[in-house]
Design brief:
Largest sheet: 6 strands, parallel
Number of domains: 2
CATH class of the largest domain: Alpha Beta
Structural class: alpha/beta
Shape: globular
Strand content: 5-15%
Radius of gyration: 23 Å
Amino acid sequence: MCPRGSAPLKHCVHSRNGPNLTTRQLATSHVCLGTAASHGTQQGKEKVIVLTGATAVGKTKASIELAQRIGGEIISADSVQVYKGLDVGSDKILPAERGGIPHHLIDILSPHEEFSAGDFFERARTATADILQRGKVPIVVGGTGFYLRWFVHGRPQTPASSPESAQRVQELLTQAWEKEAAAEHGALTSEQKWEAGRQLVTSLGDPGSAERLAEVPGNWYRLNRVLEILLSTGRPLGELNLDVEAPLDYDFRCFFLNRSRLELYRRIDARVEAMVCGGLLQEANWLLGEGLQADAKCAARAIGYRQAMLFLQRCRGDPSHVTADNLVQMVRDVQAASRKLCHRQLSWFRDERLFKWLEGDRPVGSIVDDIVADFSSPVNPGSSHDQGMLTKEQERELRMYVTQLSHVNDTDIQQSLLQEVRCMIAKPPMVA
């Protein structure tokens, strides 16, 4: 019998931060940080905390205790948690788990809406000013490096999109597709159209952006925006980089939580299994029911949702695809994509000089102690410039790394998940 409703399976417990972490008692002697006047440095700039790290490192627990300790409010810098209904796959912190701490930029958009770095900048900066005005400490938490760079250094002056520029981009893409179709002597697949679009970016003088677009296949919003900027400015996006040497308007205290790469990979793999068992497929099915297809919007391109939606679409098109092997492969695909994201995050923040790296494999209270101490200091500690590098032995361990499934390889769990998939494809959800 098909389970009623869309309640998530309970075969595995969905734990936000992997293995439970021991939390130290809050410090008995508080530094008084709860008023706006105490946030300023000797230069009079108000302090803003930025807490980031690779996916699954343990940012959420640390941010909650930090906010409780210093009278802070949290601004989410997560590109998926902005969407309503995407809870399990984004590892969204539930209201009951927030410890009474206000959270901003969570559940603010429909999955049908796009969300860009520019959108984040405007909303996050507005929230920051509001939090400071009320005498609280803004704590920006998330792992989206592009968002955080713009948030700290300001957004570059790029031309606004317009109906005219969008039409010009579409005309150029159509011409590129027609030329490619003639060369192929037939209609193009969506993948071929995407590659033709990337080649167009290269031909307009921005091979760097074309290479970065290869990491987000199907993100037409981003490709179109790159083309609009190229047509408007005639310059590669790399030449529109932020001036990271310019004075900052706030005293940003930036921290990067880190763990050994091997431990991060294990935590990521365990989290993905927990998400699949805890409701990811149901949320992906809901997105399909909203009329979205994989890669169609930002929400449907997100890691986890994209793979789960593709899996369900294939199962719906061919019921013989509903097998344990294909289910396990979907899980492995999400794990692999998440580990690649982890690698990109580590590489990105290794070069960010404002970020002080902190070891995350210790009690949360100890991590928060270090952050509070640096926050209280009149001097910004910044980066030591030698963080996150792997030894040869660590590189060898990672090359030999193999995912060890702990839940989805269980026959009973597989059959329960597959039965739920059969129910989903037997009665496709009504398109909103």
